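Um, can you check?
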Amino acid sequence: MSGASFPPSSATAPLRQGRAPVRALFALAAWLCLALAAPSSGLCAGKALVLYDNEGTWGWIGEMYSQHMANLLTHFDLEVDRKSSASYQAGDLENYQATFYLGAVYGAALPAALLGDVLATAKPVCWMGYNLDKIAWGATSADFQAKTGFSFIGLDTTGTWPEVRYGSGSFTRVSVSGTYVGQTSVVDAGKASVLAECVNGAAQTPYIIRGGNFCYVADMPFSYASETDRYLAFADALHDVLGVAHTGSHTAILRIEDVHPAVDAGMLRAIADYLHSENVPFVVSVIPEYDDPLGAYNKGVAQHILWTDAPDTLDALRYMTTKGGQIIQHGYTHQYSTVKNPDKGTTADDWEFFRVRKIGGVQTFIGPVPEDSAAWARGRVLTGKRMLHELGLNPVAWLTPHYLASQVDYQEFAKVYGPSLDRGVYFATDTAGKLQFQEQIAPYVIPRDVYGTRRIPETCAHVNPPDVLPSTLIERARVNLNVRDGWAGMYFHWYLDLAYLRELIPGIKALGYQYTSLPVPLDLMWSAPLDGSAGQAVDGQITLTFTESVDPATVTAATVAINGAAPALIDCSGNTVTLTPAGSLPLDSAVTVTLSKAITAQGTGYTLDHDLTVGFLTAAPQAQLAAAPASPSNQTALSLAVTGSGLTHYAYRLDGGAWVQDQAMGAPLELSGLTEGSHTLDLLGRDNAGHAQATPTSYTWTVDLTPPAAPVIDPLNPAPTVTTPKPKLAWGASEGAASYEVQVARSQDFAAPLLQATVSGDTSFTPGTGQRLPAIGRYFWRVRAVDAAGNASAWAASGFSYASVPIGPLYPLLGGQ
C-alpha cells in the first residue's frame, strides 16, 4: 500500500448539490462586530499544533484537512499553527497545549524526533488516520502499549464498517472499497477507553480510542463527511480530548434563501407571517441586484432589476424585518458577467465568484473567474452592501453565492463582514498544479477559520422536494443533538410551498432546538471614497466620514495607524475621522489607514479590522459646462448644466462681477437679463474633500438682438404668370443674413403654407424633388432673412399666377415637367 491514501476529498465527499450547489466561505473577520455566542471553556486560551503529511501525489489532502482541523480547534479558544510532519523539530510538542497529527499519506516518512516526543510528552496528542504502525509496532511497541493501554492491529481495508456509535448516538460512515479503519485493541482497561466504535452488525472495533494523553482516530474523519457522518462524533469528542466542558445547548438558525428584486412579494409576506406566528427569528439572504443578461426568464430579452424598480417586493422585504427577519448579503448579483455559469446566466441560478461550465452535460468547476482579484471581489461586495444601506437595510452577515469563491475573494469578503452562514470551502494544490477543494460542515460555531471568518453552522442543508423533504432536515438535526453544543442550521427557498416550512419548524422545535437571530454588528459604513478613489486629501489632512449600524452605540474614538506607523487614539465624534499623515501628501498617491479599535460613548471597546486605502486627487477639481453657450445667440436667458468629476459645489460670476458662491452640483446655473454684446462666464469648482479650483473655467459668447434687413424681391423671378409648377423665386441679398426662410401659400395670411424651405448660401429657391405647385391658380410667396444669432427680418412678399400652357404650332409644350 505504499503511496496509498484514502480517496481524494474532491472525489469522495461531493460538494453540495441542488439549487445552491457548491458552497464556499467568505473570510477574515472584518469591519466591526459583536461577539456571537462565544463558547465558555474550561481551557485557558492557548495554542495547538496541527501536523500533516504533505508528500507525494496525495500530500495535498493533508494540507487541506489540516485547515479543517484548525477550524474546529478555534471553537476551543485555541490558536493554531499548522506545519508538515516532515518539518517537525525535536521539542516542538512542548510549545503547544495539544498536538494533532493527520496521517493523510500512507507510509509517510515521520521524523524520529516526532515519534520520540509523542511517547515522551504528557500533553494531549491526537493521531488520525495512517502511520500509527510507526510508533505502535517495532522497537517502540512495548512503550506505546505501556503509555496508552491499547495496541494497533493494522488497517482493515475491506470497507465493511458502515456505522459509528458514540455515546447514545448512531452516525453514518461511508464504507466502500478503498476506505479503511485502523484497528486497535484494549490491552489495559485501566488506561484505555473507547470513546466511539465502528459497527457492522454484531462486529465492533474502536473508532476513537484514548489512553492517557494519547487519542487515536481510526480514519481521517474529514473524508466523506456528511450531515449525519461520524465526523460529528469526532467534533464532539474534541471536548473530551481537550478537557473542555462547554455548556450543553442546541441552537437553530433559519435562512430564507435567494431573495432578490424579482421574487414574489406575497410569498415573502406569507413566510414572515408564519414564522412570526411561531416566534421564530430568521435571516433573509438578500441579493442586491437582479440580472438576466441572456433573457432566460424574459423571452430572450435582457432584464436588469434593482430593488427600487420593485417597490412592492421591497416593501415585503422591509415587512419581513418587522416580523423577526434580519438581512444578510448574498453576493452582489449571484451570477457572472453575461454568460452561462453554467446554467442560465441569471441571478440566483449561477455562480458569481467561480467559473463553472457544463462539459458533456457534467457540471465542471474551472477555477476563479478571469478578472478575479482582491480589488474586484471587494468592489462587488462593497457595491452590494452600499446598495442595501441606501435602502435602509442593515446586512448583519455575508453569504457567498453557491458557497464558492477563490481564496483571495474570501479574504476580501472578511474585510467587509465578520460572520458567515455558509459552509467553508478550503483549498490545496496537488502535484499537477490543479486546485483541489472541499467544504466543511461546522457542527458548532467556529470563531475564526483559516480565512478569519466567524462561521455560523449550516448543518442540515435545505428542503429540496421531492428528493430532500423536511423530514430529512429534521433527522439531520436529530443526529446533531449528539454534539453537546451542536447547531441545526438550515435554509428554505422563498418559492417553495409554505406547507414544507410548516412541517419543518415544529419538527426542529420538538427536538429541543431554540431558533436564534444574529447579533447586530456595530458596523461602520464609510461614505468617503475609499480604495484609491480620488478626493480625500486637503491641507495635509484626510477626513473620513462614517455611519453606524447600531444606535445608540456612538463611536467617539478609534485607534488608528497611518502607513504602518504606531497606532494612536483619535477623536471620532461627529462621525468623522480626521487624520494627518506624516510628510507631504502629493497628488496621485495613496495612504493606508488601519483602524484597530473603536470606543463608544458607553465606554465599550470593539475590535476593528479595517484596512482602508485612501486615494488622493489625480487632478485638481475643475467645473465646466456640459455645453457652452451658443455664440452668437439671441437668448437673453440661459439654463446651463455644470459638471465636474468629484465636485460637490461650484461658484460662478458673470462679466467680472461678484462671485455667486456655494451652488450645489446638480442645480442648473440660471442666467437672465442678458443684454446685447459680449458676455463672459467664469466657473470655480470644489470637491468633496474641500479642494477649490484655482483658475476659473471661462466661457465667452455674444448676444445679438438686431435682426438683418428684409430682402428685396426680384420682380422677374417669378414672372407675374408662370406656366411651370416649379417656378424660381429670387430676391436680393440682405447684409448679415446667414440663411433665408421661404414660404408659398394660396392665401395672403400664409396660414397654411404649401411650400416652405430654409435656404443657405443662395438668394433663390426652386421647388425640388417632391415639391410643386398643386394646381392652376393664384399664389403668394414671401421671404425673410435670418442671422447667425437667430434674429429674423420682416417678411418681403409678392404674388404670381400659375396658368395652363398654350397649345399650337407657335406654342410648343413649355411646361408640365
